[in-house]
Write a structure and sequence with these properties.
Blueprint lengths: L1 H22 L2 H5 L3 E6 L6 H10 L11 E6 L6 H9 L7 E4 L4 H6 L13 E5 L5 E6 L7 H6 L3 E3 L6 H11 L6 E3 L5 H10 L4 E6 H7 L1 H5 L3 E7 L20 H11 L7 E4 L5 H14 L3 H10 L6 E2 H11 L4 H11 L4
Parallel strand pairs: 1-2, 1-3, 6-7
Antiparallel strand pairs: 3-10, 4-10, 4-11, 5-8, 5-9
Helix pairs in contact: 3-13, 11-15
């Protein structure tokens, strides 16, 4: 009898302790702590620049005003970090990060090493929707989309499955181009230096905003020719550059392209692991949204050449869920489009 009472007492105490922990307010939880904001790429690229700008301001809008530190964890074009965020990082709200907007599509199309369910991430927000572009070095003489699609151009790419790999592959598989894709470049800077050195002739998958912010001299001096936009809608500054969907030769090709490009609306997304307490996710989302309206943040973003067109976390969640609700024939056509033949 004594042992039974003792066990019941322990259970009551444990229940009370758990209830107390769950009832802890975000301010109490975050006070005097440091949040880790991970970037799935090396320093210096567009994802890194956006993350570091965010980290300098977002903490003051989180209850308890925690510090924020940026940590780079590159690998497999950010897919390695997405896997770790989902499977191994703490699920307490102390860790979130940014990885390629193509990551949800990677899982939908059953690419290797996608050990996560994108619908279960807690999406925090994105500073902008994106327009990706295909560029070629000025020295090779491409001056029209017709010329671009008819030439055997050599493209540099990160890991297989990255946007820099997938987009020229789509042009080969779906639209009849004859490009060569060389994978294995670790980061954005490596891809651009490869073009300058003449190792490669072009790059697909870089965003217009990143090109403007990190290589403004390339834009100003027209060192690259912008052949195509990978997006659902044209960027206002690129009205003369055709959308890839304009090259579709059938309704099936167009729908497959639109599914693949759905991720462009996600920009450079930030996400937390699954099963983080709801009140902490709400606090992080609200802080992200507040940062996007902060005068000091916007002034710095302008100096850095960063486009700010915020996409709320709830909107990102809906975009991902909609991807996974598409009809199987559309998904299969998209899978065929990005399947590497190497």
């Amino acid at each position: 009898m004594y042992q039974l009472l003792y066990c019941l007492t322990l259970l009551v105490a444990l229940f009370g302790w758990l209830s107390s922990g769950n009832a802890q307010s975000p301010a109490d939880f975050y006070r005097d702590k440091t949040i880790s904001l991970y970037v799935g790429y090396p320093p210096g690229g567009g994802y890194d620049v956006y993350a570091r700008a965010l980290a300098r301001y977002m903490g003051k809008f989180i209850p308890g005003a925690p510090h924020m530190v940026v940590r780079n964890q590159p690998g497999a074009a950010s897919l390695a970090f997405a896997n770790e965020l989902y499977n191994t990082h703490p699920r307490d709200g102390m860790v979130f990060g940014t990885f390629a907007r193509s990551v949800p599509m990677d899982r939908l199309l059953e690419r290797p090493s996608t050990n996560f369910d994108p619908t279960q991430f807690n999406w925090i927000g994105s500073a902008n929707a994106e327009v990706s572009i295909c560029t070629v070095w000025h020295g090779i003489g491409v001056r029209s989309v017709e010329d671009f699609m008819s030439r055997p151009i050599v493209f540099g790419a990160n890991a297989p499955g990255s946007e820099s790999d997938v987009y020229p592959t789509i042009l080969n598989n779906l639209l009849g181009a004859n490009f060569k894709v060389v994978t294995g470049y670790p980061g954005t800077n490596d891809l651009m230096m490869a073009m300058e050195r003449g190792e490669t002739q072009g790059r697909c998958g870089m965003t217009w905003s990143a090109l403007k912010s990190t290589l403004p001299d390339w834009v100003r001096e027209k060192k690259v020719y912008i052949a195509l936009q990978f997006a659902i809608e044209k960027h206002p500054e690129l009205n003369d550059v055709p959308l890839v969907t304009e090259l579709a030769r059938s309704e099936e090709e167009k729908r497959a392209l639109e599914l693949i490009l759905a991720g462009q609306a996600m920009g450079r997304p930030f996400a937390a692991p699954p099963k983080v307490p709801a009140e902490r996710i709400a606090a992080l989302r609200a802080a992200f949204d507040a940062t996007m309206q902060d005068k000091s943040f916007l002034e710095e973003a302008d100096k850095l050449g960063l486009e700010i067109q915020p996409v709320a976390g709830v909107r990102l969640q809906g975009l991902v869920e909609n991807m996974f609700a598409q009809p199987k024939p559309v998904i299969q056509a998209a899978r065929h489009a990005i399947e590497s033949k190497r």
